[in-house]
Amino acid sequence: xxxxxxxxxxxxxxxxxxxxxxxxxxxxxxxxxxxxxxxxxxxxxxxxxxxxxxxxxxxxxxxxxxxxxxxxxxxxxxxxxxxxxxxxxxxxxxxxxxxxxxxxxxxxxxxxxxxxxxxxxxxxxxxxxxxxxxxxxxxxxxxxxxxxxxxxxxxxxxxxxxxxxxxxxxxxxxxxxxxxxxxxxxxxxxxxxxxxxxxxxxxxxxxxxxxxxxxxxxxxxxxxxxxxxxxxxxxxxxxxxxxxxxxxxxxxxxxxxxxxxxxxxxxxxxxxxxxxxxxxxxxxxxxx
Length: 288
Description:
The protein is an all-alpha fold. Helices cover 77% and strands 0% of the residues. Helix 5 crosses helix 10 (181-194) and helix 7 runs antiparallel to helix 13 (242-249). The protein starts with a helix and ends with a helix.
């Protein structure tokens, strides 16, 4: 009975774990010479077997009405489109400024969840949320580099990613009231596939590209973790509050930093280290 009431927590923690491992490993194919734009295309393809798996378990049934199509594609395109915009923002501006802006998308989700969805949280959950938001910003910290912004548009793009990802979770939670998780994930996968051509078009094929096992094949294995995390996020939002689930899953960089320390012997700077402490406290208060 207790486990049944905590389905959302199980799925949220699985999402956090999968995304944390994904974040620690994703640079491997990129360092081998497989560009992130093609990595996006690979990720979109890994969404397909996950979608087929859940659809098969649901008897191949999913919503086909106009409202479901509109909601599902909005969810899929805001998530996938935000990823493509992030690539462009990082190309035009410094990562140490882009990531802190983008990482605070749970703030918008919380605002929409309270104002639009009418969600409410207990006092200890609000405490956890209050700790999670600065933790997310600190965890996304990157030391400044000599590379400055190449165009003022990077700030607009980073803000659009913030808006897209913050809106996606609220719309997803709203859609749970009239769509099955299987249907939602089908449209998420479909939306991701729609943006594969633009991702390929953004790729610089003049540079050497790794087409061996360290390229698309390794990327597929790693991006499958991202896709499975997206799937469990749908189930977490079905049973849990968006104002709690989204900040919790946004703490995945904690695991990324720990794994990076073990795999690459990187010692986190002071801001991410403080973020990890705040994240641990936030998880404790939100998961009770």
